[in-house]
Amino acid sequence: MIDRRSIKNKTYEVEKDLKNLDDSSILLNFKEVLTKIYPNLIKVIAHAYDSWDNISENLFNELVYNTFAWKYGIQIDFKNIVVYESSNPSVSHFHIQCFPKKKLSKIYKFNEEKQINFDDYKNVVLIFDCFMDGINYLSSGISVDKAKNVNFDMVHVSLVDIIKDKVLDNFFMHYQDVDYQFVAVD
Question: Residues 98-144: pLDDT tens digits?
C-alpha cells in the first residue's frame, strides 16, 4: 500500500489472514473471478450494458477495496474511490496504481502495439481502470457470439498527471506486465 493519508491510523481491525497477500494478488484474484463468472453472465444476458457495470463494479468494491480495508485496517469512503471502469480516475481518490515491470513496456491503443519508456515521463502515474480484452467494451453492447470470446488478459490504465490530477492518455497493457498497488488517500 502507498499511504498518502495525512493521519495514518488504523480505523478497522486488521485481518491477519490477508497478511500474506500482496496488492497484486488481490487484484489478480478479482481478475480470476471475472474470468470464471463471465460465461455464466452470458447465459443470462448479464454480460454487457448496465448489468455488467453493476456486477463488475460491486464485485470490485467487495473483492478489492473491502479486502484492502481489512488487510490494512483502514476505512474506505466509497464516495472517494476510483470506480471500476472509471472514465475519470483521480490521484485524489482511493485507487490502484500500476507499475510496469520493465522500463520499456508494450502498450496497446486502437489495436496498435507500441513500445513506451515510462522513465521518459515525469510527474505521472498509471491508474488501474479495469481488466478487459482490449477488443470488446463490455459497458456497451456486445453480441452473445462475441461475448464467448471475451477474456480479461489486458488491463486498461490511465496515465494521470499528478500535479494537475488530469488524465493525459489511456491504453491497454498485458495484465502480467504490471504490478498493482493500493493507494490510500484522505
Answer: 999 998 999 999 889 999 999 899 999 999 999 998 777 777 777 88
Strand ranges, E, within the chain = 2-3, 95-100, 104-109, 112-117, 124-132, 154-161, 166-174, 178-184
Q: What are the grid coordinates assigned to 38, written together?
A: 463471465
Report the domain count for the chain.
Answer: 1
Specify the pTM.
Answer: 0.91
Residue type (1 letter), 154: M
Closest C-alpha among 95, 121, 122 to residue 107: 121
- Torsion angle of alpha carbons 173, 176, 177, 183, nearest 10°? 90
The DSSP secondary-structure symbol of 94 reads B
Instruction: Give the integer Cα–Cα distance in Å for 6 and 25.
Output: 27
Give the closest residue to 85 by CA, choosing from 131, 41, 135. Answer: 131
Q: Between β-strands 2-3 and 178-184, what pairing exists: parallel, antiparallel or unpaired? A: parallel
d(CA 150, CA 29): 18
**Cα Rg for the chain, rounded, in angstroms?**
17
Cell representation of residue 80: 472517494
